[in-house]
Amino acid sequence: MKVLLLILASDTAPEYLQFQRLWRLYMKSNPNVHCYFYKGHPDLTRPAFLEDDTLWIRINESLETVYEKTLRAFEYFLPVLKDYNYVFRSNLSTVVAFPQMLDYCASLSRTKCCAAVIGGIPRDEEERNSLSHGFSFPGGNGFLLSPDLVRRLVEEKEPLVVQDDVTIGVALRKWNVPIQEFARPDYMNDATWYLNGTHLLEPKDWNLNPKKLLFSYRLKTDDRSKDVEMMRNLIRRFYTV
């Protein structure tokens, strides 16, 4: 099982640089997970090139260009997609437990597969079928795609709708591909962990030891310094660094 992990990144804020330094503590720790940041800069002499652990793309950095930047990152890696079972698109303020992610991937379909926390569906809805809603999408903090879907996204280039995750959700519904939902702990403003942003984690889970179905940890407070510190703590817990 091999995963290509692409981290949506930029250098436009000091905390983004701190997140990148923390990612670098563990991003090369597993030979079956290949990690790369992808960033944009408008003045590059080439459309895209790989420099160490960073894919540079000639594009302005803004919220409006995230989707195009993501598609171009996917396009750059098309020649090597055959070497991977899945692509995981992560944001910077997420910690990923690699062994647990690989275990989870082993349970997924190898084609027409998207796994994520589903956005756009009320959290209290029991039947969380992404295809039954006109507005559903893979949560932008991190989603898994099988290589065939990555290739199709690049080839068909669904027109932008709001943001990259929402646009990918439009394409998935058009292709009749459901989103398989996984559990994601979220660190929120009250310094408490919730499951998928709403349900308070059970006391037995407060130690946040990685489990088979818990591998993607989102840090989402209004104080990025708290997120940086929590990321540092999680990495120390999950990895020998």
Task: Report what the structure shows.
With 241 residues, the chain is of the alpha/beta class. It has a single domain (3-184), classed as Spore Coat Polysaccharide Biosynthesis Protein SpsA, Chain A, CATH 3.90.550.50. 27% of the residues lie in helices and 25% in strands. It is built from six helices and 13 strands. It has helices at residues 14-23, 66-76, 98-105, 147-156, 164-174, 224-238; strands at residues 3-8, 33-40, 48-51, 54-57, 86-91, 94-96, 114-119, 137-145, 179-181, 185-187, 193-195, 199-200, 216-219. The strands form two sheets. The protein has an eight-stranded mixed β-sheet with strand order 3-4-2-1-5-8-7-9, sandwiched between helices. A five-stranded mixed β-sheet has the order 6-13-10-11-12, with helices on one face. α1 packs parallel to α6 and α2 (66-76) packs across α4 (147-156). It is globular. The two termini are 24 Å apart.
SSE run: EHEEEHEEHEEHHEEEEEH
**Domain count:** 1
What is the rounded distance between the termini? 24 Å
Which term fits the overall shape? Answer: globular
Cα-atom radius of gyration = 17 Å
pLDDT averaged over residues = 88
Structure summarized in a few sentences:
The protein has 241 residues and is of the alpha/beta class. Helices cover 27% and strands 25% of the residues.
Question: Which structural traits does this protein have?
Answer:
241 residues, alpha/beta, Spore Coat Polysaccharide Biosynthesis Protein SpsA, Chain A
Please write out the topology.
Elements: E1 3-8, H1 14-23, E2 33-40, E3 48-51, E4 54-57, H2 66-76, E5 86-91, E6 94-96, H3 98-105, E7 114-119, E8 137-145, H4 147-156, H5 164-174, E9 179-181, E10 185-187, E11 193-195, E12 199-200, E13 216-219, H6 224-238
Parallel strand pairs: 1-2, 1-5, 2-4, 7-9, 10-13
Antiparallel strand pairs: 3-4, 5-8, 6-13, 7-8, 10-11, 11-12
Helix pairs in contact: 1-6, 2-4
